[in-house]
Write a structure and sequence with these properties.
By secondary structure, the protein is α/β, with parallel strands linked by helices. It is built from 21 helices and 11 strands. The strands form 2 sheets. The chain has a 6-stranded mixed sheet, with helices on both faces. A 5-stranded mixed sheet has the order 8-7-9-10-11. The longest helix is centred in the N-terminal third of the chain and has 35 residues.
């Protein structure tokens, strides 16, 4: 064979072999690529941890909850909130039921002294009342969308009867075809009617169970006090201070709110005189010769989430100023009574701070002479953490020890070491004061867990979210947070500062959304006094007229409406409506 042919055959064989190797290599690469891209089985979930016995839960260290379960709970609640927003048309009762259908916290999260049954009951009431107010805007939007229908009036009444349980005023609906539907008047009317229904339920059914407080009154007298007079700030975020934060029966304590907790000293002296006269003449709440005293409490407030902006507006969100001025007002009350009725007629004083985001309180424990240190307090949130892993009995003992330890001068003999000995009556009040503070702390532990369980640790509405302004005298039924801004007054002039603050708040809450400011003018009276009802009605009319004169632009634009109501506090009956700016205007003839 020629050499050239032999070389050609060799070259062809080499090329064929190379081609075969390349094809084999390509096949292997394709197979490997397929293996890499082949779907794999999802990873097996981790095996659940072994259950922890109840004994271990009670004795485990004070560990904070794991982050992942908390996130799951938060996501679950956020999803529930989105569903609630999408289904605004449900009734308030069903809303409360669904709202309670939430994941329960682990037993280790709750304090052993927490009253879970009371927490569930209080949350049902809070949810139902607030949902009744919060449903107003969505339902009115639904009604507005159907105002072009020929049977609009019937349809509107059908919707409101189904959603609210009441009908809209016919005189507003009947003129809608000619003047347009006045949604602002309808909104104000729905707020007032909802308030009336909530108030009626409160006085008729006593849903909070605080009307009768015989047990607490007996305990209070054992502590050396015959009346507990509490002044929270008028801020709506403290409106629940009695029934929720301190868990006291509202019928057994006196509450009167003022802006900045700066109560009227003269008014309180008059109340002290009235109370002492009742003790002397009628033996109510106890006889005048029993060694008990009148106790005045001031509750100032602060914010842990946004301390620079969401504290007390009256003090510029300055916690130190709020505490200092609250104590100065307390000290002035004591001096006023001692100057007028001698030192034996002194009063007990107690200063409490409240975190409006978590409802945890801090107590300025007084010394044996009733004085406290403004920069020293017992933080109940820390007490919760310290005592959470104990038994109920151990927790109570530890709380009493902490209260004693936070008494000014307790490590140096107190007032006795300073040559300021206390009388026997003061000694009783001193020991009783510590017992009372321990009870208030125990009650507040339940509220701390209430906020942690139902509001994810702190309220979402850390600022103002009130539904209406309440002005005048009364409002015993307002026991819920951020429902009402209070402005107690007899004349608009004396309460002008509080009213202006309320109007400023509602300018942001309502007017900025083209909604009017709803104001309830209320006066309670004693029915056993001749002519008291007529004078109360006249008070309401005078205040309503003064409001119209003070805020003429809002009134003329339909951005401020008033409801006037009175109540016989001796009879214990519900409120009586005596007038409203929403009443139909009747024209006269020439």
């Amino acid at each position: 064979m020629p050499v050239a042919e032999t070389q050609a055959n060799a070259t062809q064989s080499t090329r064929a072999a190379r081609s075969s190797r390349q094809q084999a290599l390509a096949a292997r690469q394709s197979a490997q690529q397929g293996q890499r891209t082949r779907p794999t089985r999802p990873p097996r979930p981790p095996r659940p941890a072994a259950p922890i016995s109840k004994a271990k839960l009670e004795t485990r260290p004070h560990a904070t909850p794991a982050a992942k379960p908390e996130n799951i709970r938060s996501q679950t609640r956020r999803a529930g909130a989105s569903q609630a927003t999408a289904s605004r048309s449900r009734t308030s009762q069903s809303a409360a039921g669904k709202a309670l259908n939430r994941p329960a916290k682990a037993p280790a999260d709750l304090h052993p002294l927490t009253d879970t049954t009371a927490n569930e009951r209080l949350y049902r009431y809070e949810s139902s009342v607030k949902q009744a107010f919060d449903n107003i805007v969505p339902v009115l939007k639904q009604i507005a969308s159907e105002r072009c229908d020929p049977d609009f009036v019937d349809r509107a009444q059908q919707i409101t009867a189904q959603e609210f349980g009441f009908e809209l005023p016919a005189h507003i609906l009947d003129t809608a075809w000619a003047t347009g539907l006045d949604m602002r008047r309808l909104f104000a009317w729905c707020v007032f009617e909802t308030y009336r229904r909530v108030s009626d339920e409160f006085f008729n059914a006593d849903p909070l169970g605080g009307r009768v407080g015989n047990d607490f009154q007996a305990f209070l007298q054992q502590c050396g006090f015959h009346l507990m007079d509490i002044t929270p700030c008028a801020d709506g975020r403290l409106a629940h201070a009695i029934s929720y934060v301190l868990r006291l029966p509202y019928g057994a304590v006196r509450r009167k709110s003022y802006a900045g907790s700066l109560f009227d000293i003269e008014n309180t002296v008059e109340k002290w005189i009235e109370t002492e006269l009742m003790r002397f003449r009628e033996g109510i709440p106890n006889r005048a010769d029993e060694p008990t005293r009148y106790l005045k409490v001031v509750i100032y407030h602060f914010s842990s989430v946004d301390p620079a902006h969401q504290g007390c507006a009256a003090h510029g969100s300055d916690d130190e100023a709020a505490a200092r001025e609250g104590w100065e007002r307390l000290a002035a009350l004591r001096q006023a009574i001692e100057n007028g009725f001698c030192c034996g007629a002194s009063v007990g004083l107690l200063l409490i701070g409240m975190d409006t985001d978590t409802d945890a309180i801090r107590v300025h424990v007084p010394d044996t002479n009733g004085y406290c240190e403004l920069n020293q307090w017992l933080d109940v949130a820390k007490v919760h953490e310290i005592t959470r892993g104990l038994s109920a009995a151990e927790a109570r003992t530890r709380i009493a020890e902490l209260v004693q330890a936070h008494m000014p001068g307790s490590h140096a003999g107190g007032a006795q070491a300073n040559g300021m000995g206390a009388s026997s009556t003061d000694g009783l009040s001193d020991k009783g004061m510590l017992q009372l503070i321990a009870r208030l702390i125990e009650n507040n532990l339940s509220q701390i867990d209430y906020v942690r369980h139902f509001h994810d640790g702190h309220y979402q509405d850390i600022g103002h979210a009130e539904r209406f302004i309440g002005t005048g005298i009364g409002f015993e039924e307002i026991q819920l947070r951020n429902l009402t801004y209070f402005a107690y007054l007899s004349t608009v002039e004396e309460g002008a500062a509080d009213l202006d603050v309320g109007i400023k708040i509602f300018t942001g809450l309502n007017v900025s959304r083209s909604l009017p400011v709803p104001i309830v003018v209320r006066y309670d009276y004693h029915g056993n006094v001749p002519g008291a009802r007529e004078r109360a009605v006249a008070h309401c009319e005078r205040i309503a007229a003064a409001l119209k004169a003070r805020y003429p632009a809002l009134c003329s634009d339909g951005m401020l409406h008033c409801l006037r109501a009175v109540r016989d506090c001796d009879a214990g009956t519900p409120i009586e409506l005596v007038g409203s700016s929403l009443e139909p205007v009747t024209g006269g003839m020439h």
